[in-house]
Design a protein that fits this description.
Elements (H helix, E strand, L loop, with lengths): L1 H22 L3 H39 L2 H24 L2 H21 L2 E3 L12 E8 L7 E7 L2 E3 L2 E4 L1 E7 L3 H18 L1
Parallel strand pairs: 2-6
Antiparallel strand pairs: 1-4, 3-6, 4-5
Helix pairs in contact: 3-4
Length: 194
C-alpha cells in the first residue's frame, strides 16, 4: 500500500510540475515564472553557501577539540609526575623517584596502547626497511645476515600505520669476497709504494 501511495504522490508531483511549465506558455506568465525560478535559484544558492560555511566552521571546531579526551587522560599522568617530583624533593630518595617514574612510564604506555599506538619490535628481528631505519651497519660473521642488534630509537605504529620507523643498528654477515678485495687493495698499495 505504501509503495502505491508513494508512486501516486510522485506522479501527482510530476503532473503539477508539468502543469506549472504549461502555465508559463503565455508571455506574462513566463516573466513571472522566470522571476520565481530565479528567486528559488538565488535562495538555494544562498542556503548552500550558508551550509558550506556552517560545515567548515563545525569541521574546524571538531578538529580543534578532537583530542580533548586524550588530553584529559594525559592530565592524570601529568598529575602523577608532579606528585612524584614533590615526593622526591621532600624525601630525597632516588630509588623512590626511580620507582615512581617507572610506574608513570608504564601508565603512559598503557594509555597510548589503548588509543592504538604500538611499538615496533626490533631487537633481534630481521631488518625490514618498511619498519626500520638502519643508522649503523656492523659486519660480523657470528650473526645472521641483516639482524638488528640495537635499537637507537623506538618506532611506532598507530592503528596499523607506521608513523615513525625504528632507528636501529644492524649486523651484516661478513662476506669472503670483501675480505679478498680488501687484501688485494692492500697488496696493490704496497706494490705502488715500492
Amino acid at each position: 500500500m505504501k509503495k502505491k501511495d508513494a508512486k501516486k504522490d510522485k506522479e501527482l508531483n510530476n503532473e503539477d510540475q508539468i502543469q506549472e511549465v504549461n502555465d508559463l506558455d503565455s508571455p506574462e506568465k513566463g516573466k513571472e515564472g522566470y522571476s520565481q525560478v530565479w528567486d528559488k535559484f538565488v535562495r538555494l544558492q544562498a542556503e548552500f553557501d550558508n551550509y558550506r560555511k556552517r560545515s567548515f566552521k563545525e569541521r574546524a571546531e571538531f578538529i580543534k577539540y578532537a583530542n580533548e579526551g586524550l588530553i584529559l587522560e594525559l592530565l592524570g599522568i601529568l598529575d602523577n609526575f608532579e606528585r612524584g617530583i614533590k615526593a622526591a624533593e621532600q624525601k630525597k630518595d632516588f630509588d623512590l623517584l626511580h620507582q615512581g617514574v617507572d610506574m608513570i612510564s608504564k601508565q603512559l604506555h598503557t594509555l597510548l596502547e589503548s588509543k592504538g599506538l604500538n611499538r615496533i619490535k626490533s631487537l633481534g628481528m630481521q631488518f625490514d626497511p618498511h619498519q626500520h631505519e638502519a643508522l649503523e651497519v656492523i659486519e660480523d660473521a657470528s650473526v645472521e645476515d641483516e639482524t638488528i642488534v640495537d635499537e637507537l630509537q623506538p618506532g611506532y605504529t598507530f592503528n596499523g600505520r607506521i608513523i615513525r620507523p625504528a632507528k636501529v643498528k644492524v649486523k651484516r654477515a661478513k662476506s669472503d669476497n670483501q675480505d679478498d678485495g680488501d687484501k688485494s687493495e692492500i697488496k696493490d698499495n704496497n706494490n705502488k709504494e715500492e
